[in-house]
Design goal:
The complex is a heterodimer. Helix content of chain A is about 30%, strand content about 30%. Chain A is an alpha/beta fold. In chain A, the strands form three sheets. Chain A has a six-stranded mixed beta sheet, sandwiched between helices. A four-stranded antiparallel beta sheet of chain A has the order 11-12-10-13. In chain A, helix 4 runs antiparallel to helix 5 (about 140-150) and helix 5 packs parallel to helix 6 (about 170-180). The termini of chain A are far apart. By secondary structure, chain B is an all-alpha fold. Chain B contains 17 helices and no strands. Chain B has helices spanning about 1-15, 15-35, 40-45, 55-80, 85-90, 90-95, 100-140, 145-150, 150-170, 175-185, 190-210, 215-230, 235-240, 240-245, 260, 265-270, 270-295. In chain B, helix 2 packs parallel to helix 7 and helix 11 packs across helix 12 (about 215-230). Classes of the chains: A alpha/beta, B mainly alpha. The interface of A and B includes residues 78, 82, 93, 101 and 105 of A.
């Protein structure tokens, strides 16, 4: 096996560019992900999240330099998958597959698969090993997929809109399982979403993408320290606007204004000040729907 | 190798028709032979008492070939769906999350079509043929026929013939297999259309514009050339089902051993065999590269 004692970041991307026809899906995207981080790639549909993820997984070839776990993912996808795993979408498990066959097959081809662990997780969800994927509800399929993925002792886990199309209860149990059973300091996770609220409590870093470009990349504490949100009453709105908020949202009796570098201004004079949530910032900065 | 065997097993799980289809057809044939209202006297009548060692084997061979023909037809369909189906149902995103190279995946599908399906056909054809022979023995009155059916030599010849057929067809039709798997990696929809149109359209254009048939001849020769390349010239006559099951009374079936019919040296010495293998190899490289690059949207 190739040496994977990677010095420096687990993922390093420099000037990634990918075009589909005349549309630029990625436009000179550069970022890096260190070991142990949980990074959220956040953006609207078509912002380039899936392209970034697919580049990381070696599913697409793009311009620029990309190294994942010391390898070029496009050229060495199979080797990379020894140490990385991904869920592109929970709806992709083949419907003819039986749960037992899935365990046998992944165990057969993946040296880092811990079958006992997967069996345990599947049993906890009360899924029979003889069930076919087609017979399981979306929620249970999700559990099977997660159990298979979490039983692989991988250094990097990539999730691409993993909960798209699932109902809220299932979505919550997906992330609960992930947080309770998988995440620890040794795991590195990259997750894309346009539902920031459901994962903002366990992200360590965010990368905001818009139209194929990175608009913001930061760890969560410094991100939250960089912005403040003020509840400005109607009569102070003109004054507040003059201070140049990055974004503004109408609320009853005034407006919520988001300011960068709050320490430089006397924001308290405008109204109650607090730290915004990541969800709020994604709305404010990317114009995403909350 | 371990991964490869798991891939083969995986294909067998998904495509149970690999053995179900020939098994069901075989069972139907056997039931028909046992209980069906068929005239077993006529095939019996056409074999003159002092005749022919191979004739009897070929008579059985006819039923075995039904199983093989179904197996090959299924293999063609299987290849055409092989790399297309996983993109259609998006399960490719599940398979590609595992440490399995595209090369291994594509070769596992080729191995199913060129080795596993023919070998399954071979096993089931044997069972069916023995069953048919038993049924005929029980139901037919002619002692000649019984004697004819149970000559060990026939059975051995049949095995040689079938094993040779599997190997020779795999080699000769290798470019067709390569083409089908490449199309399945390429097409975003209508795989069957994609399999035919790139050949049919140039063929028609050539016919209309140049009034020649180079493309048609090339393709037709690949399909019809097999018998004349892989067997000696006298094979046509011996293989003709009519020669065995025909209505002509007093027809004598040539008494030849299997070794006089098969022509492995001719097959291996033929340039078109190896051109075909090279073309098939090129298609396979294309299929692997396409699976590497093509992502469902």
């Amino acid at each position: 096996m190739a040496p994977t004692a990677t010095k420096g970041p687990l993922i390093s991307a420099s000037q990634l560019t990918k075009s589909y026809g005349s549309r630029k899906a990625l436009d000179q995207v550069s970022f890096s992900v260190d070991s142990g981080c949980v990074v959220g790639l956040i953006g609207r549909n078509g912002a380039g999240k899936t392209s970034v993820v697919r580049a990381i997984l070696g599913l697409i070839d793009c311009g620029g330099d990309l190294t994942v776990l010391g390898r070029n993912p496009f050229r060495a996808r199979a080797a990379l998958m020894m140490e990385a795993s991904f869920i592109a979408d929970v709806a992709v498990m083949p419907s003819w597959l039986k749960v037992r066959q899935a365990l046998d097959f992944v165990g057969g081809v993946h040296p880092r698969f811990q079958r006992e662990r997967a069996v345990q997780l599947i049993a906890r969800a009360q899924i029979s090993l003889n069930d076919r994927i087609a017979e399981l509800s979306k929620g249970l399929r999700t559990q099977v997929h997660l159990a298979l993925t979490m039983a692989v002792d991988a250094k990097l886990l990539v999730l691409d809109e993993p909960t798209l199309g699932l109902d809220p209860v299932v979505r919550r149990s997906f992330y609960e399982l992930l947080v309770n059973e998988y995440l620890d300091e040794s795991r590195t996770v990259v997750v894309t979403t346009n539902e920031v609220s459901e994962l903002e409590y366990f992200l360590t870093h965010v990368i905001f993408l818009d139209q194929g470009r990175i608009t913001l990349a930061s760890d969560i504490p410094s991100l939250l320290g960089r912005y403040a949100v003020v509840e400005v009453p109607t009569d102070l709105m003109a004054t507040a606007r003059a201070w140049g908020p990055v974004s503004e949202r109408q609320i009853l009796g005034g407006s919520l204004m988001y300011f960068e570098q709050p320490e430089t201004r006397e924001l308290e004079s405008l109204g109650p000040v607090r730290t915004p949530t990541v969800t709020e910032l994604s709305v404010a900065i990317l114009g995403m729907q909350s | 190798m371990r991964t490869f065997l798991w891939l083969i097993r995986r294909e067998m799980w998904e495509n149970t028709a690999i053995w179900m289809l020939p098994a069901l057809i075989g069972a139907a044939l056997l039931l028909a032979a046992l209980f069906g209202d068929i005239d077993l006297a006529s095939p019996a009548a056409l074999s003159p008492p002092d005749q022919p060692p191979l004739g009897g084997a070929l008579w059985l061979f006819g039923f075995g070939m039904v199983i093989f023909a179904i197996g090959w037809a299924y293999a063609a369909w299987y290849l055409l769906d092989g790399l297309y189906g996983e993109r259609r149902d998006r399960s490719i995103l599940f398979w590609r999350a595992l440490p399995i190279s595209d090369v291994k995946t594509v070769f596992s599908k080729l191995a199913i079509a060129l080795v596993v399906i023919p070998v399954v056909s071979y096993l089931i054809a044997n069972v069916v043929t023995v069953g048919m022979a038993l049924a005929v023995t029980v139901r037919a009155s002619s002692p000649n026929l019984r004697a004819l059916l149970w000559k060990p030599q026939h059975w051995l010849e049949l095995q040689v013939l079938w094993v040779y057929l599997i190997a020779a067809m795999g080699l000769w039709y290798f470019p067709v297999a390569g083409w089908l798997i490449a199309v399945s990696a390429w097409a975003r929809k209508s795989v069957a259309l994609w399999a035919v149109m790139p050949i049919l359209v140039p063929f028609l254009i050539e016919r209309w514009l140049l009034h020649t048939h180079a493309i048609g001849t090339l393709v037709a020769n690949r399909f019809t050339g097999f018998l004349s390349v892989a067997f000696h010239n006298n094979a046509d006559e011996a293989f003709s089902f009519a020669a065995v099951a025909g209505r002509t009374k007093g027809l004598t079936v040539p008494d030849r051993s299997i070794w006089e019919l098969i022509n492995p040296v001719g097959l291996l010495a033929n340039t078109s065999t190896w051109i075909g293998v090279a073309v098939g190899g090129a298609f396979i490289v294309i299929a692997i590269e396409l699976r590497h690059r093509r992502v469902e949207q």
